[in-house]
User: Fold this.
Amino acid sequence: MRRRGRRGMQEAMPSSRAASPTRLALSALDTLAGAVLLVDTGRKVLAATPALEALLGAPVTEGTPLSEVLVPQASGERPDTLLTESRASLARFHTGPQTLRVRAVALSHAGKPQGWALIVGRESTPDAEGAEVFHGLWTRDPELRRVFRIVEKVARTESSVLVRGESGTGKEHIAHALHALSPRGKGPFRAINCAALPPNLLESELFGHVRGAFTGAVRDSPGHFRLAHGGSLFLDEVAELPLDLQAKMLRVLETRTVIPVGGRAPVPVDVRIIAATHRALRREVEAGRFRADLMYRLRVVPIFLPTLRERRGDILPLAQRFLDEHHQRGTRRVERFSPEARRLLEAHAWPGNVRELRNVMEYAYVIGEGPVLRETDLPPEFSEVRRPPASLDATPAAGALDAQSVRAALTRAGGNRTEAARLLGVSRVTLWRRLRALGETTD
Assistant:
């Protein structure tokens, strides 16, 4: 941004102390939306609210070309990219030590373009705040940034990596980063959720099958291992692998070959394994649910992702970033959070982590109105009296799970059924059966 002129808005409006329609309109804009710049179809300033001039620290003169008010850095946004005939667009501009978030809304009357309203807000400069965007993950948290540095080091090796973290913490983002930063980055990246498929189908998806191996096998299928040849294979929720498949997985890792279902000849594969789980594999080994020899193969380099509740300083900035995404597609502009909304967001346990936060912000954006996100905009569970934690230790039958509890758990878990089942204290199968009884699953 560049400061322009010594004359204030008083030169662009009548000098009379009586409130003119223009002055009233700007006063209303100032109250409702804060810093606003009105631009005509010739891309020149029509008017500005007092809040905008206060934000810039200088008056803005009517008739000033927008290109002289919004001055991009060498590699920054250009003002013209904002001014489209679509409903809204968003960009950021730097002025001195601050970053300004600028949202443009096209104005029209009787179908004819009239100009744009540019709504401006201050945004903390990421570098000044120690923030970092790493392969889709944004944080200011020192612990997560330390994880990023570990990923950069490990990516250069061929070591198997086990990513530990709750649902929604970004395990797949880390897997993509490990692949993209590795010498295999130009090769294929394949991902499979080991908890999403029944054992017989999972084996075929992993190792492939030959034609006629089972009913419906009308042609050969290579499987994920062969499709990932020369690249990386991401095994999400690897702790859910059945024991018989664990033995076959171990054989693949030891021999670097796969035998398709129904086949006899081993096929060589060159794949780096990146596994992820929200469970402690050592405890699964102690419980007899996971093979120790496979755990050692997969857990050469363990990486632990912090939960969102351990990154409290990231909650509100992330929430604002998600709202900004909705700004670009909708008409509502959320500039700030009410004190109570801030308190509720920061105090929430976030069992679904960043995925849950994204869903909550979408809900709040759709439900609420105006520039302030209030506590009443948040999902119902934020205002409900929480049950004691001990109640989550119970293991009710599927029929005892009422629909409201199931839906609330799914919302808190950001739609992740494994996490929702944990919150309810039941198995994933029990939750699936209850969802089927409620008619809310097509699995």
Summary: Residues 1-17, 124-128, 385-398 have pLDDT under 50 and may be disordered. The radius of gyration is 27 Å.
